[in-house]
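Researcher: We're teaching a course module on how sequence relates to structure. For the next exercise, students receive a sequence and then see the predicted structure as C-alpha cells, so they can try to spot secondary structure elements on their own. Here is the exercise chain.
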Amino acid sequence: MGESRSIGIGEIARQAGVSPDTIRHYERVGVLPHAPRTMAGYRRFSGHTIERVRLIRRALAIGFSLAELARILRVKDAGGIPCESVRTLARKKLQSLKEQIADLIRLRRQMQGVLRSWDRKLARAPQGKRAGLLESLKGSPSKPAFGRKQK
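Model: And here is the predicted structure for the students to work with:
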C-alpha cells in the first residue's frame, strides 16, 4: 500500500489482524507514530502502518517487548541503523530461553521424583486416610517456578 493513502483505525486493525485498541495502545507506547487526526478527531494512518503492525506482531512473537521495539523503531524512524543492537538483544533473549528451558527440565525431573514418591505414599496410605502429600515435600523452600510470587 502506498504512503499517500490514508486509512482509518478499523481498517488498519482488520488488515493487520488486531483490535483497534491494540492500534491505540501501540501508538501510546511509541511503536507506531502518532497518527494525524481528522477535524472530527479520527486517526488517519498511512498505508505503511499495516506492515508496521505486522512487524511489531512478529517481533513480539519471538520475545521482543513493546518497550524494546519502541527504542529500536525510534532509531530506525530517525534514519539510524539499529541492526547490531537488535542482534545483540535477540542473542540475550536466546540465552534467556536456554536458561528457562534448563530450569524447566530440572523442574520436570523434580516433579517426576515427587510423583513417584507420592505414588508410593498413596499405595501405603490406609483407605480413607490422608497421605500427607504436600507435607512430605522435603528440602528448603526454593523459588517458585517461573515468575510466580510467593505470598
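Model: If you want an answer key for the exercise: The chain has a mean pLDDT of 91. Helices lie at 9-16, 20-29, 48-61, 66-77, 83-124.
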